């Protein structure tokens, strides 16, 4: 029988002071859902006997089958403490690494979290992840040390050993928190420092502590108070529990109990019950130093020993008499039905459930220690409101005022409504309240009875008239038939409605009250409150909405609101601020997450960060081609229903699903088959991403013999394209465009490892840098300052990135000196782990770092024409390398010379590069002038014989925004992906290079081709994506685990025996390409005793050369002349090439002649 109904909960929703929005976070299988069961049973939603067995919040069939949670789901509970009623909106999250996206969606809506740790397994990888997630979302965590029963029953620890173990686990967790705290403080300190110096330099010029050359990183760490961030039982933020047996307690419970018995004050006991204190029997005083004196700590004496003896009596000795005594002494009332039960576990659970109810302990901690919606951290609000490194004070004043709406969390009519949707989820229509049979009231029952009676009498009367009906006319028969048909039609419609699926938004009201029929805006991430407000002020209200709709905001009417009750939903008329809810009718407007608001001044919330990036891809196709539309539709729905999956159509036309891991992929495919597309599908082998790179030529061969001189250049000669090119002995390449107007000298070399790692880690910064640099260039011309929109934090991060890059280059040796300032672009996508360097002696282009420098420190700013085309060529080359068209990584292309001949009227070409530049500093005005028309008279080219100067135009390709295109460029290339000036319809004849197409296009393809050839000159390698893999296994299955790991080309990094147990913690790495079925195989081979957790860790070069053939005598001797089987890189490469339909250099028939001869002889 349910203890609380929806009306009561709705009433509780009105009092934000007594609302707690919390989520349960932990590593996989540490007992989150089991604990949620215990909490749910306290509200009578499930019986306490079924708690732990039912796993009520795992409502999907596959969740129940596999025993893991796959999605986060919410339930609202009531908790009564003293004279106060609390509303707990509880969200259970999955712990499996593949579903960590769901954790992000849960934490975003909460103010507090319960972090559960299995005391036997201790802190595991996902525990780190969830703690970091809670930290970065600024939500307060509390700790539950779970599965303490395992210390008694499985590990057979004594209470003293168990106490030690609990201390260890607590220390482990606090170490993680301490690290997070320290890094947070240091970040803040650096930020403060940067801000301070920036302010001072603004005022005075010279920096105050320039003489202080050594920065003390621990600055600020000591003065910041960290006492309240740690978990400590005496602070009341730790619960000791066994979710499966339904018990749990905090120190407070025992402190109050023993205070009366021992005559000691509660506060003293609270401080001493956990820790190194003991009770001196003689003096009856609590003393310090239990360990040193070999005494039992209070925690052992007063708590653990009692628990241990209960377990011993009930489970081991099964001593019923003693058990009854214990029940009596604890003053418990156990139902006779439970006492009669044969299973001692039932006795134990009945006793513990009453003595130390888990729900009581956990929920009272939640109410006391976790913040409610009224105490939302102000830093958190600012972070939520400002995405993309934007500063809070750059938001328009109306938007800044909304901060107080967040903090006050009011729900009166005049308060703006702000709702955040963190994910969309699907439920089948059957679970919608409108399709559910609700229990009938007494009056309705009477009415129905009356109706039935009437129908019966009517039927009897009809039967009597049957004979007359036989003579009825045809027409009336027909009408009767149509009537039935109509009737059956409506029922089939209803059936379809019941069978379908409905999307609901998983959301939280942060301010105001959302109600049915209300009109709200859906704000897309691109929504800029400033723009919207300007428009609203400038024009009529309705018009603005129409103008903006479809761009960044859409208006909609709220249709259905639901209270989320786990597997059930309760319809609501309105929901006030501070609550979690479900919203219907948004499937066409919201893809995955969104912000809803009643005011356009509200900025879109910062997007969520996902801990696991999707990495496993498969291509899917329908079994029957006619089902293609269903597949496309199904993929769309799948994308919407899962926060972490990506679906895309590749250039090849393949429909691809990208999932976070194997388990996630399997769930996605099941959903696609059974829920969204409802068709049979074929699924390709997993597509694993690879990267291509080059290395420094190896010094030894495959049999460890020194290589004298392998001439790599020989091999690439045959591949060289029709473009005119020449490879010189030092490994550089000279290449000319097909019209011979421009020539390049370039060279490829591997980037130092440290640099590649830096680039890889700072993709987001590089993107911001690129945008800022483009904005900087455009602000030179349009004179609007855009740089101040970057927060100090981002600016200091960028400066730091530059410094670290510089240091990495310096460490790498002389040849890299000054490379940081020569960076032309990163690639692919302008923010990848490859670099284009400008080593052209006469070309000093504006540095990419210039946007960070103070005004006035700008160096040379000559931007040469076609600069953008060179960058585009580089982007294309790095996007798909020559090995198997996978992106490049860790490659540096240095352009050492670039000549650009100028075309004269008579078709003669002349000029060197330096002459065709635009000095942005000196000629700023001229450029501005040139903006007014296609050709400028003001800008002249020295030595130019052409009467029509073309240098004032800067045609920029891929990625440059249109303001940079200073004039309508006659040289713009229409074939390049995003040329900034769309109104150029045809290139002017003089810029078309002798029938070979526009020059900018030729430069793009020449640079691209040049980069590819330069890459091929060097020894090439594939880079494989690697998983890190954590396995916990007992000693007896260790050998089998190692067997499976090594068979799949994995390597063991670490192996540690856990103290006091026979369990080993193994960390290994494994290529993603070899990982499919790995978890399953390990589980099978070890009979389920070991189960690995895989998560993407890094990229690693495959050591073998994909083009290697045995050449030296030793190699031939060792491998024979066909050594393909040995070559892992070749296998990977051919696999990818085959999938992509590229040419493979492989004989399909080995001994064709022999076969023919054989058949002839037959
Ligand atoms: N011995 C013991 N087992 C427990 C306890 N709590 C949970 N379990 C068991 O641990 C297993 C995992 O429990 P779940 O509650 O599904 O764990 P979870 O954290 O929700 O797992 P995911 O949602 O998949 O991350 C189940 O078999 C539970 O019966 C406990 O306190 N003691
Ligand atoms: Mg679970």
From TrEMBL:
Pfam families registered for this protein in UniProt: EFG_C (PF00679), EFG_III (PF14492), EFL1 (PF25118), GTP_EFTU (PF00009)
GO terms of biological process kind: cytosolic ribosome assembly
Domain (Tr-type G): residue spans on this chain: 17-267
Gene Ontology MF: a single term: GTPase activity
UniProt feature, compositional bias: Polar residues: 937-947, 969-987
Record has Nucleotide-binding as a keyword: yes
Biased composition (Basic and acidic residues): 467-480
Designated name of the protein: Elongation factor-like 1
Protein species of origin: Patiria miniata (Bat star)
């Amino acid at each position: 029988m349910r203890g609380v109904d929806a009306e009561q909960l709705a009433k509780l929703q009105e009092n934000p002071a007594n609302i707690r929005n919390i989520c349960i976070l932990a590593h996989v299988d540490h007992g989150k859902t089991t604990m949620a069961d215990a909490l749910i049973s306290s509200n009578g939603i499930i019986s306490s006997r079924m708690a732990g067995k039912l796993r009520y919040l795992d409502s999907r069939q596959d969740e129940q089958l596999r025993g893991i949670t796959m999605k986060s789901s919410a339930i609202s509970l009531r908790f009564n403490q003293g004279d106060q009623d609390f509303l707990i909106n509880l969200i259970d999250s999955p712990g499996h690494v593949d579903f960590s996206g769901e954790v992000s969606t849960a934490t975003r809506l909460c103010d507090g979290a319960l972090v559960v740790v299995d005391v036997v397994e201790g802190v595991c990888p996902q525990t780190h992840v969830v703690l970091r997630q809670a930290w970065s979302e600024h939500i307060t965590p509390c700790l539950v040390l779970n599965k303490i029963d395992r210390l008694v029953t499985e590990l057979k620890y004594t209470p003293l050993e168990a106490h030690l173990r609990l201390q260890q686990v607590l220390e482990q967790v606090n170490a993680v928190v301490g690290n997070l705290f320290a890094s947070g403080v240091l970040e803040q300190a650096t930020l403060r420092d940067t801000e301070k110096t920036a302010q001072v330099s603004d005022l005075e010029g010279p920096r105050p502590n320039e003489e202080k050359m050594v920065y003390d990183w621990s600055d600020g760490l000591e003065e910041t108070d960290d006492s309240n961030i740690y978990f400590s039982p005496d602070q009341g933020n730790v619960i000791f529990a066994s979710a499966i047996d339904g018990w749990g307690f905090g120190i407070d419970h025992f402190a109050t109990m023993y205070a009366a018995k021992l005559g000691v004050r509660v506060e003293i006991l609270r401080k001493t019950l956990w820790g190194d204190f003991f009770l001196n029997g003689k003096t009856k005083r609590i003393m310090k130093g239990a360990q040193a004196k070999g005494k039992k700590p209070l925690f052992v004496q007063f708590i653990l020993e009692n628990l241990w003896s209960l377990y011993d009596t009930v489970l081991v000795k099964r001593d019923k008499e003693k058990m009854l005594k214990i029940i009596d002494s604890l003053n418990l009332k156990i139902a006779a039905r439970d006492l009669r039960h044969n299973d001692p576990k039932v006795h134990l659970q009945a006793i513990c459930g009453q003595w130390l109810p888990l729900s009581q302990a956990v929920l009272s901690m939640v109410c006391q220690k976790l913040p409610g919606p009224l105490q939302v951290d102000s830093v958190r609000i600012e972070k939520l409101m400002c995405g993309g490194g934007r500063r809070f004070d750059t938001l328009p004043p109306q938007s800044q005022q909304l901060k107080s709406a967040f903090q006050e969390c009011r729900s009166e009519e005049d308060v703006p409504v702000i709702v955040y949707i963190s994910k969309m989820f699907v439920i089948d229509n059957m679970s919608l309240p409108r399709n559910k049979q609700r229990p009938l009231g007494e009056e309705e029952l009477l009415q129905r009875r009356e109706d039935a009676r009437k129908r019966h009498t009517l039927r009897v009367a009809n039967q009597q008239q049957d004979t007359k009906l036989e003579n009825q006319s045809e027409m009336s028969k027909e009408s009767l038939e149509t009537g039935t048909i109509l009737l059956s039609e409506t029922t089939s419609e209803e059936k379809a409605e019941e069978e379908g699926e409905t999307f609901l938004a998983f959301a939280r009201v942060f301010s105001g009250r959302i109600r049915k029929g209300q009109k709200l805006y859906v704000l897309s991430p691109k929504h800029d409150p400033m723009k919207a407000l300007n428009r609203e002020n400038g024009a009529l209200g309705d018009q603005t909405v129409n103008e903006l709709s479809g761009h960044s905001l859409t208006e909609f009417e709220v249709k259905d609101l639901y209270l989320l009750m786990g597997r059930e939903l309760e319809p609501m008329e309105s929901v006030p601020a501070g609550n979690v809810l479900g919203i219907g009718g948004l499937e066409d407007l919201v893809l995955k997450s969104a912000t809803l608001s009643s005011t356009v001044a509200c900025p879109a919330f910062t997007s969520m960060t996902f801990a696991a990036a999707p990495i496993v891809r498969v291509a899917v196709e329908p079994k029957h081609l006619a089902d293609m539309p269903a597949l496309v539709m199904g993929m769309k729905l799948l994308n919407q229903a899962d926060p972490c999956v990506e679906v895309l159509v590749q250039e090849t036309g393949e429909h691809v699903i990208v999932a976070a891991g194997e388990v996630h992929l399997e769930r996605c495919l099941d959903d696609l088959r059974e829920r969204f597309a409802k068709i049979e599908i074929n699924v390709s082998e997993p597509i694993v991403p690879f990267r291509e790179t080059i290395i420094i030529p190896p010094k030894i061969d495959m049999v460890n013999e020194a290589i004298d001189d392998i001439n790599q250049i020989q091999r690439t000669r045959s591949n060289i394209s029709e473009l005119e090119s020449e490879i010189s002995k030092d490994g550089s390449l000279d290449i000319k465009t097909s019209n011979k107007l421009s020539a390049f000298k370039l060279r490829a070399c591997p980037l130092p490892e440290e640099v590649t790692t830096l680039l890889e880690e700072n993709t987001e910064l590089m993107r911001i840098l690129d945008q800022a640099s483009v904005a900087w260039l455009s602000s030179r011309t349009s004179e609007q300052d855009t740089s101040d929109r970057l927060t100090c934090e981002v600016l200091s991060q960028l400066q730091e990135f530059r410094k670290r890059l510089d240091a990495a280059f310096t460490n790498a040796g002389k040849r890299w000196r000054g490379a940081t300032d020569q960076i032309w672009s990163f690639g692919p996508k302008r923010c990848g782990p490859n670099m284009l360097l400008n080593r052209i002696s006469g070309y000093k282009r504006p540095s990419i770092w210039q946007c960070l420098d103070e005004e006035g420190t700008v160096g040379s700013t000559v931007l040469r024409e076609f600069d953008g085309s060179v960058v585009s060529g580089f982007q294309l080359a790095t996007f798909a390398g020559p090995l198997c068209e996978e992106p490049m990584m860790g490659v540096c292309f240095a352009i050492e010379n670039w000549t650009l001949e100028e075309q004269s009227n008579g078709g003669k070409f002349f000029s060197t590069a330096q002459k065709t530049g635009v000095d942005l500093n000196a000629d700023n005005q001229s450029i501005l002038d040139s903006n007014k028309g296609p050709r400028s008279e003001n800008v002249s080219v020295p030595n130019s014989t052409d009467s029509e100067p073309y240098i004032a135009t800067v045609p920029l390709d891929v990625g440059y925004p249109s303001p940079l295109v200073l004039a309508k460029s006659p040289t713009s290339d229409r074939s390049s992906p995003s040329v900034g000036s769309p109104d150029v319809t045809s290139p002017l004849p003089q810029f078309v290079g002798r029938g070979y197409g526009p020059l900018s296009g030729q430069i793009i393809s020449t640079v691209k081709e040049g980069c590819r050839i330069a890459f091929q000159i060097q020894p090439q390698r594939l880079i494989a994506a690697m998983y890190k893999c954590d396995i916990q296994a007992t000693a007896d299955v260790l050998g089998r685990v190692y067997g499976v790991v090594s068979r799949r080309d994995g390597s063991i990094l670490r192996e540690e025996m856990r103290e006091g147990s026979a369990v080993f913690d193994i960390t290994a790495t494994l290529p993603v390409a070899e990982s499919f079925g790995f978890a399953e195989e390990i589980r099978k081979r070890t009979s389920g005793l070991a189960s690995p957790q895989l998560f993407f860790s890094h990229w690693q070069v495959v050591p073998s050369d994909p083009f290697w053939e045995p050449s030296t005598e030793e190699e031939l001797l060792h491998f024979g002349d066909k050594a393909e089987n040995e070559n892992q890189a070749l296998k990977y490469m051919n696999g990818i090439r085959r999938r992509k339909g590229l040419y493979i250099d492989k004989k399909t028939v080995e001994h064709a002649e022999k076969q023919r001869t054989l058949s002839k002889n037959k």
